[in-house]
Design goal:
The protein is mainly α. It has one domain: Irregular (MYOD Basic-Helix-Loop-Helix Domain, subunit B), CATH 4.10.280. The chain is built from 4 helices and no strands. The model has no long low-confidence stretch (mean pLDDT about 85). Its main location: cytoplasm. This is BHLH domain-containing protein. One of its GO terms (molecular function) is protein dimerization activity. Belongs to the bHLH protein family.
């Protein structure tokens, strides 16, 4: 029965594999170790983690913009930052 196709054309086996991969990617799931979380809880944690990553990227972007605004655009430091962003 695990190979049965769902409405979207993805088998239950494939869904289980994706859920397993999510568990390895989420810090909170890794801390739990081998304990199984419900799929609903795992998806909520995934959404929360993605939102926190977005906030972190936004914060780093703001900080970088502030730093670039205070630098001489022709300085070696500014060139290093530009090269990292390419």
């Amino acid at each position: 029965m695990s190979s049965r196709r769902s409405r979207g054309g993805v088998s239950e086996e494939e869904i289980n594999e994706l859920i397993s991969r999510l568990q390895t990617l989420l810090p909170s799931a890794r801390r739990r170790g081998g304990s199984q979380a419900s799929t609903t809880k795992l998806l909520k944690e995934t959404c929360s983690y993605i939102k926190s990553l977005h906030r972190e990227v936004d914060d780093l972007s703001d900080r970088l913009s502030d730093l670039m605004a205070t630098m001489d655009h022709n300085s070696p430091g500014a060139e290093i930052i530009r090269s990292l962003l390419r």
